[in-house]
């Protein structure tokens, strides 16, 4: 039996949240891995680059926004049949600039409850669950502070 060792691609991913609590998603180009599916923006971490640097670079390159504040959300190691990825996912709720698809990709703001209606790569499913959990946790905290 032959075991094929694949290099795991390290990817910085941003869950960009606007002031209304919506999440920014973009659609992958048809010609790339998992093409046509929706995703959270980001890209490969280059040699010598921190995850935060890669995240800031990718969000600027893809969407023309500048990250002002972010926090780690989760890490996901996922093996597709043709590729292995390590998604380093960050919550981005402070940014400047008006998003637009610099690479011509469609993008949209989506309510958290509507994320499950979009088709994402399999590796993104835990991100959707983590977003829902974070939003629920933030909602619980704000209702706790109002009732005290």
Question: Can you describe this structure in just a few lines?
Answer:
The protein has 148 residues and is an alpha+beta fold.
Provide structural commentary.
This protein is α+β, with helices and mostly antiparallel strands and 148 residues long. It has a single domain (8-147), classed as Nucleoside Triphosphate Pyrophosphohydrolase, CATH 3.90.79.10. Helices cover 24% and strands 34% of the residues. The protein has two helices and seven strands, in the order E-E-E-E-H-E-E-E-H. It has helices at 51-63, 125-147; strands at residues 8-16, 23-27, 38-39, 42-44, 66-79, 84-96, 107-110. The strands form two sheets. A four-stranded mixed β-sheet has the order 4-1-6-5, sandwiched between helices. A three-stranded antiparallel β-sheet has the order 3-2-7, with no helix packed on it. A hairpin with a 4-residue loop joins strand 5 (66-79) and strand 6 (84-96). The longest helix has 23 residues, at 125-147. The radius of gyration is 16 Å and the shape is globular. The mean pLDDT is 89.
Task: Please describe the structure with a list of short key phrases separated by commas or semicolons.
148 residues; alpha+beta; 3-stranded antiparallel beta sheet; 2 helices
Instruction: Name the CATH superfamily assignment.
Output: Nucleoside Triphosphate Pyrophosphohydrolase
For this structure, the quaternary state is single chain
CATH architectural designation: Alpha-Beta Complex
Which stretches of 5+ consecutive residues score pLDDT under 50?
none
Number of domains: 1
As a percent range, the share of strand residues is 25-35%
